UniProtKB/TrEMBL annotation, chain A:
<dbReference type="InterPro" id="IPR017900">
    <property type="entry name" value="4Fe4S_Fe_S_CS"/>
</dbReference>
<feature type="binding site">
    <location>
        <position position="51"/>
    </location>
    <ligand>
        <name>[4Fe-4S] cluster 1</name>
    </ligand>
</feature>
<dbReference type="InterPro" id="IPR010207">
    <property type="entry name" value="Elect_transpt_cplx_RnfB/RsxB"/>
</dbReference>
<feature type="binding site">
    <location>
        <position position="129"/>
    </location>
    <ligand>
        <name>[4Fe-4S] cluster 3</name>
    </ligand>
</feature>
<protein>
    <recommendedName>
        <fullName>Ion-translocating oxidoreductase complex subunit B</fullName>
        <ecNumber>7.-.-.-</ecNumber>
    </recommendedName>
</protein>
<comment type="function">
    <text>Part of a membrane-bound complex that couples electron transfer with translocation of ions across the membrane.</text>
</comment>
<feature type="binding site">
    <location>
        <position position="119"/>
    </location>
    <ligand>
        <name>[4Fe-4S] cluster 2</name>
    </ligand>
</feature>
<feature type="binding site">
    <location>
        <position position="149"/>
    </location>
    <ligand>
        <name>[4Fe-4S] cluster 3</name>
    </ligand>
</feature>
<dbReference type="Pfam" id="PF04060">
    <property type="entry name" value="FeS"/>
</dbReference>
From TrEMBL, chain B:
<keyword id="KW-0997">Cell inner membrane</keyword>
<dbReference type="InterPro" id="IPR026902">
    <property type="entry name" value="RnfC_N"/>
</dbReference>
<dbReference type="InterPro" id="IPR011538">
    <property type="entry name" value="Nuo51_FMN-bd"/>
</dbReference>
<dbReference type="InterPro" id="IPR017896">
    <property type="entry name" value="4Fe4S_Fe-S-bd"/>
</dbReference>
<dbReference type="GO" id="GO:0009055">
    <property type="term" value="F:electron transfer activity"/>
</dbReference>
<keyword id="KW-1278">Translocase</keyword>
<feature type="domain" description="4Fe-4S ferredoxin-type">
    <location>
        <begin position="375"/>
        <end position="404"/>
    </location>
</feature>
<feature type="region of interest" description="Disordered">
    <location>
        <begin position="644"/>
        <end position="671"/>
    </location>
</feature>
<feature type="binding site">
    <location>
        <position position="387"/>
    </location>
    <ligand>
        <name>[4Fe-4S] cluster 1</name>
    </ligand>
</feature>
Amino acid sequence: MNILLAIVVLGSIAAIFGALLGFASVRFKVDADPIVDQLDALLPQTQCGQCGYPGCKPYAQAVADGEAINKCAPGGEDTIKKIADLMGVEVQPLDDSHVSGDAVQSNRPKVAFVIEEDCIGCTKCIQACPVDAIIGAAKQMHTIIIDECTGCDLCVAPCPVDCIEMREVPDTINNWQWDLTSIPVKQLD
Amino acid sequence: MVESVIERITRGHFWDFHGGIHPPEQKFLTASKPIKQLALPKQLIIPLQQHIGREGDLLVSIGDHVLKGQALTLSTNLMVVPIHAPTSGTISAIKTSIIAHPSGFSQLCIFLDVDGEDTWRKRKVCPDLEQLSNHEIIKKIADAGIAGMGGAGFPTHIKVNSKPDINFLIINGAECEPYITADDLLMMEQSDAIVDGIKILDKLLSPAFILIAIEDNKPKAIKALQQATAGIEKIKVCVVPTKYPAGGEKQLIQILTGKEVTSGQLPIHAGIVMQNVATCFAINEAVRHDTPLIRRVVTVTGQALDKPQNVWALLGTPVNFLLEKCAVQALENEKQPVIMGGPMMGFSIASELVPIVKTSNCILVPSKTEMPSAFEKESNEVECIRCGQCSDVCPSQLLPQELQWSAKAKDYPQLEKLNLSDCIDCGACAYVCPSQIPLVHYYRIAKAEIRQQQQLDLKAEKAKIRFEARKLRLEKEKMARQEKHKKAAAARKAAMNKATPEATGAKSAVAAALARVKAKKAASKSGSIDSQNKPVDAVVDEPVNEQKSQVAAAIARAKAKKKLKQEAALQAPKSDVLDKENPAAVVAEQPAQAEKSSVDDKKTKIAAAIAKAKAKKLNAASQSIVPIAPPITAAADKVAVESSLPEDISPKGIRSEKTSAEKPANTDDKKTKIAAAIAKAKSKALAKKSAQASSLSASAIVEESVIVKVPVTEEETMDSSAAPDAVNQSAEGESKSGAADKKAKISAAIAKAKAKKKLKESNKVDSNVTNKD
């Protein structure tokens, strides 16, 4: 008799809580952002195509579909870490084939620069720029809108006279970061 | 609400803010000395940007001589504040130089070689404030280049241009940071000018009340301002208890009104505007005396100086000039730190050539005993012991130790959750920290990082938008292009369909060209079909097209060929039939020819010619059929041999032939011709056959023909009366005879095929045949 009672009591409790949980899952349902949008938000939006996809959103889609997370060269380690956190996978080092040039300078933000006396006005770089950051017309000198340039490198290759180069963004007061190294931190172990 | 606040203030009761500290004030070093007017320095270094915002556009170039107060840059937007020449002189250079910033970075500066004349530009003094509209006053403030002189350097003309109802205008004279006495002395010496400035602000903002907040450690300043504001009901001088950082904007508001400006809000949202006393002084100078902001009071202090004091420093004065004037003791000492700003919130400057700017209120040169930490290269930081003193003193009620951990871990989302942005960098936490952790330093790094990240995010967002826009644009252009092409094609079509002469001309020309092209194509096609020797099939296969004249021609040709073939086929049986009887016929004809040789001579000639032509025709026809003929010939050969002999018509044929042949000259030309042709063909065929056939078969044929000949000769005499109808009969006889029709056709075809084959084969024996003929 006691056993029966226990079963009934426990069973009813389980049923009550089950109903509660079921109700809560419907009533308080959270519409999470689609994973692709979240991934897209993590990517640097340089639209450089170094990952092998035509833009950041396609790569976000690919990552959501199981593509490797370590193909974003402009994003670097930080982005990989964020994607790993979001996707719940291991952090991987940046894919070697997607590291352009030496890795040391890849961390520094860069913008394209047109050597204006060499420009012949072929408009090829304008067509290559994914964010319309180059101004110019046929047979007129072109120039880069530095504020809009994402440093994606895509305009360098099409230039027939090699008059575009990537230059590091100089440090100014506006983008200066306090340097911790000026304060030697002693580790006490 | 406002009244109760004022009641409390008049009773001398104030609210308190959370935390705060009481560091040693050290104000006695400079507080008792008047502000010193300094001699002009040799050179001024004027940074283009001295405030929050952007630098203006340069108005001068190297070599220009400028007068005191002359604008050097032009304000192009609201956040830009112009700068002015602090004294007269010549611009010697415009280049980058180290500026007053913790980074020690260089920025564009104007180097002004002072000529010592100190000549003013023309000024327009405005004694009567009532003549000016608010707009004019604000313009004057903006043109004078006034930015908040308390520390942040926010452009003042934006701050005083607020429209909503202002409950309180708070004049900040708290000056809570240790060592600094610049505002204190300014209030003591220039109280009237400050109050005049406050009146201008009152006119602009028309607040309900004006509160002048002064810490209770500045009795002289309090007294001076109370005297200056005596009789003005609106202005209350509030003596607030000394506590660092009471001078912070949000803290002072809380002390005076009890209102807490929530995170992310501006005081203006609570109906409160705060201005520094030095800013009020500068406003008065600008509006009443047309004097732009070119100088400020700077406290030059520290125990390393012999003569610490407040000085009137022209903007752009290098720090080392000030230090010289204040007799620095240990300037030779390389390690001597020079701090710009107060001990709590200031920063070490990288070079003593750094110029004074609009926000520099203090130069601190501490001695080693005074501020040992500034001399130490290595930090004495140890691990946080979680004593919690930092959160006790934090005026923003943050959790400094939590912030510190997150800052070290670079966990920026967590820092934002902990409201790092509300930290005012006051340094109270670091001051009380027993582990000597430079907490504020970590926060500053984190803040810079977050700001950087926000900028990057913003940029990424912008890049994304631009990328999307570009994609859309390219798509649109593509569509437009397609649409254009479609339209152009339609327009062309429409133009062609119009009944104008040019259009029809063009149309017909195009049509003609098209027809030509098609015809060419068809010709090449039919040609290829011809070579395959299926002309009839080709005609059927060919899509009927009237325009293809060549095709039609081809068809005609093919038809002609077909007809020819049919003709030949019709003739073939006859000839075939006759062929066999040829020897007999020849035999039979021989006596007739002998009898009428004169007549026959001509006839035979004609017949020969016709036969030749026919043969030629047949030849041509046969040539086209040759390739398909071989497979049949094998079988046909047999059939021909079998069928040709027992033919029922053959006697008739022979008979008719004979009669026609035997008929004299009055008989039909046609008949004779045909007969001759037939004979000829027969003879030819026979010749071929015989040439090919063995001697045995030849003899057999001869025998047969002889046998056959016998009844013929018998009948000849009988039917001679019916001779005129003979040919017709023979033709009818063919159709009449039982199996004749079908058989004849088949045999004809077979014979024809045979004949052709033989013709081909007998090309070599042709000569023999002609000889025989």
